[in-house]
Recover the amino acids of this structure.
């Protein structure tokens, strides 16, 4: 089975993604979840869940923020409400949230999502023994390492195949602090479109924004692994995430549709180079003009990754 997981920025887009053929919608509220295209409240999550289940689409809710003292007391009631709504699973990165889920016996499956920390089968299996039904793999794993990891895990492991890759997060408002220091207040939200570059490397373009969870910095290029999908099927990594945080509106829906075509072709055994090239060209055309695409760490030699 191949599972396509896609973010949603609105109820309308969620409906369009369901009709496009996604298997799972990834949504949440920014008080509890990280780097969401839109922060949905519980009422909106319930509405999307009803629509999704009507179309046989699952719902995964992000609860993967690090819960400090100002938030931890709210987590239990939030998880209980998600269980009442009937969401299919939650993504969790903070062991404290897992502890609450277990000690309060809240009937919600969870996947372990510690972002860049999830790099080994032993780590995944550690959390499987503690109830995890899946895991979100780090974006920095080359294919040669994925080949070693995949046979050693017994649960689905999600891999990003399209979208932006976060490379750094700080709980501190780093950009706001900078603007305050130079006495030039600026909007530091995602909509502002800020980026930073390395000295003497003008081609670098690290998107940066701030929200309730602090400062988030993204890789210069977004990820497109359409050329690697067949390899992923061969090693059994078939839970694929499509991230729309910087690809808004109908363009993201159309890109998701292209991955649905790829999924169906792979399952039908009719995948070929011609179709791959056609889909790749369409993805590039739909992708935001000011954002580049590449294969990220997927094609790197593991010895080159530090």
């Amino acid at each position: 089975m191949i599972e396509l997981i896609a973010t949603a920025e609105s109820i309308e887009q969620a409906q369009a993604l369901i009709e496009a053929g996604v298997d799972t919608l990834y949504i949440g509220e920014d008080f509890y979840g990280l780097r969401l295209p839109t922060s949905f409240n519980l009422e909106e999550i319930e509405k999307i869940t009803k629509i999704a289940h009507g179309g046989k689409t699952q719902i995964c809710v992000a609860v993967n923020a690090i819960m400090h003292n100002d938030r931890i007391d709210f987590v239990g009631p939030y998880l209980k409400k998600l269980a009442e709504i009937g969401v299919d699973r939650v993504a969790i990165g903070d062991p404290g949230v897992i502890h609450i889920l277990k000690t309060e016996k809240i009937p919600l499956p969870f996947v372990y999502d510690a972002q860049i920390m999830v790099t080994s089968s032993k780590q995944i299996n550690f959390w499987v023994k503690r109830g995890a039904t899946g895991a979100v793999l780090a974006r920095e794993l080359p294919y040669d390492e994925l080949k070693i990891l995949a046979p050693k895990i017994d649960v689905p492991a999600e891999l990003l195949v399209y979208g932006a890759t976060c490379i750094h997060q700080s709980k501190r408002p780093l950009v706001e602090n900078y603007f305050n220091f130079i006495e030039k207040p600026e909007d530091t939200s995602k909509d502002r479109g800020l980026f930073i570059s390395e000295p003497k490397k003008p081609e670098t373009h690290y998107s940066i924004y701030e929200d309730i969870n602090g400062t988030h910095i993204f890789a210069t290029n977004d990820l497109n692994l359409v050329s690697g999908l067949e390899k992923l099927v061969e090693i059994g990594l078939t839970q694929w995430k499509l991230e729309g945080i910087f690809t808004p509106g109908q363009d993201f829906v159309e890109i998701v549709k292209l991955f649905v075509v790829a999924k169906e072709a792979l399952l039908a055994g009719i995948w070929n180079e011609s179709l791959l090239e056609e889909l790749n060209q369409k993805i590039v055309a739909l992708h935001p003009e000011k954002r580049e695409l590449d294969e990220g760490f997927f094609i790197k030699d593991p010895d080159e990754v530090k």
